[in-house]
Amino acid sequence: MIIDTNVMIGRWPTRNLKFCSINDLIQQMDYHNINQAVVFSATSVKHNPIEGNMQLMKSISNHLDRIIPCWVILPTWEMETERELIDDLKSNKVKVVRVFPNEHHFVLDNWVCSNMFKDLEAAHIPLLLNGPTVSPTQIHSICKSYPELPVILMQSEYALNRNFYMLFGLCPNFYLEISTYFIYHGIEDIVHRFGASRLIFGSRMPFQEPGAALTMVKLADIPSSEQEMILGRNMERLIGEVKI
């Protein structure tokens, strides 16, 4: 079982992407033997989160066995939609969410996001954060304030390892997605120190080819059972623990 936790569909304004559609994504998944993908919409990032989420649900309606929808959400969801966030997620069977504070002009701090964090924690919905736009201090604050909220850091940089290792030790609900974690024996060292359960496979398609991240895991000097955890079992468990 391979679950790719970091995939986008749609057009990007500043880059020509290898693919934009769900059908093309499915072809890429088949080629790389990826069983399922957690997918968010480019429209949700660059235009309007609510509209983009609805476009996503429409485009994946015939592929729900392969595609796990990931909504891009806002801390002002109820104000902007006049609906409760958790009710919307439940009615659309969405069990993974992602935020883009820089693009949507809010700060990822409690005084803005506490209600959103509380709702996600109560439902155990994994929250995906972008490494380049969130600080280790913010991650630590979220993880410690909401210990039942799974927090997955996406597109991380190995140069921040000293922070990551402290987060692993201090925050059991902190996870690291590996699409950009290119460091010699980096996966092996994290598994040795903290266990394979803290790592999540992602490819960052369509910005990157999946082969690099897949190879890092499949050639890592760890037991095959731990490779399987990273490639899909960890994310499968987190999604299975969602309470909506």
Helix content: 40-55%
Mean pLDDT over all positions? 95
User: So how many helices?
Assistant: 12
- Structural class comes to alpha/beta
Count of DSSP E strands?
8
Largest sheet: 8 strands, parallel
Radius of gyration: 17 Å
- CATH structural architecture of the domain at 71-240: Alpha-Beta Barrel
SS strand fraction: 5-15%
CATH topology of the domain at 71-240: TIM Barrel
Shape descriptor reads globular
Alpha-carbon distance between the two ends? 23 Å
The name of the CATH superfamily of the domain at 71-240 reads: Metal-dependent hydrolases
Q: Pick out the low-confidence regions.
A: none
Please write the string of helix (H) and strand (E) elements.
EHEHHEHHEHHEHEHEHEHH
Largest sheet, order of strands side by side? 1-2-3-4-5-6-7-8
By CATH reckoning, the class of the domain at 71-240 would read: Alpha Beta
Task: Spell out the key features of this protein.
244 residues, alpha/beta, TIM Barrel, 45% helix
Could you describe the 3D structure shown?
The protein has 244 residues and is α/β, with parallel strands linked by helices. The chain has a domain at 71-240: TIM Barrel. Helices cover 45% and strands 15% of the residues. An eight-stranded parallel beta sheet has the order 1-2-3-4-5-6-7-8, sandwiched between helices. Strand 7 (174-177), helix 10 and strand 8 (199-200) form a beta-alpha-beta unit. The protein is globular, with a radius of gyration of 17 Å. The model has no long low-confidence stretch (mean pLDDT 95).
